[in-house]
Amino acid sequence: MKNKIFSLVITLILTANAGFCTQTRTVAIHDIMIKFIIAMFGVMLASIVIWAGLAIYNKILTGRNPVSNDDEILKTPKTIDDAVKFFINKNRLR
């Protein structure tokens, strides 16, 4: 009997606060939603700024014609000797 009364009192104490704070909870959720939207707007803005910066950098970089080596880079060596020669030529100290 004592346990039932004790558990009833504890339940009333713990749930009474939730019943009184319904309006406060919706305000808190609204504030959290506003903060989340502001944070996502900041992420979107930062992404756009980074994308634009990289696009401009790419335009400037591709404006110059890089010195390209022979088309050997795209050719696959047919023999082991060709592969070794290719590796030695590409990894030479400069």
Structure description:
- This protein is an all-alpha fold and 94 residues long.
- The chain has helices at residues 2-20, 22-63, 80-90.
- The chain contains three helices and no strands.
Approximately how much beta-strand content do the residues carry?
A: under 5%
Q: What low-confidence regions span 5 or more consecutive residues with pLDDT below 50?
A: none
Q: Give the helix tally.
A: 3
Helix-strand topology string: HHH
Instruction: Quote the average pLDDT.
Output: 78
Number of strand segments: 0
The computed structural class is mainly alpha
N→C terminal distance: 90 Å
Shape: elongated
Topology diagram in text:
Elements: H1 2-20, H2 22-63, H3 80-90
What are its keywords?
single chain; 94 residues; mainly alpha
Brief overview:
The chain is mostly helical. It has three helices and no strands. The radius of gyration is 34 Å and the shape is elongated.
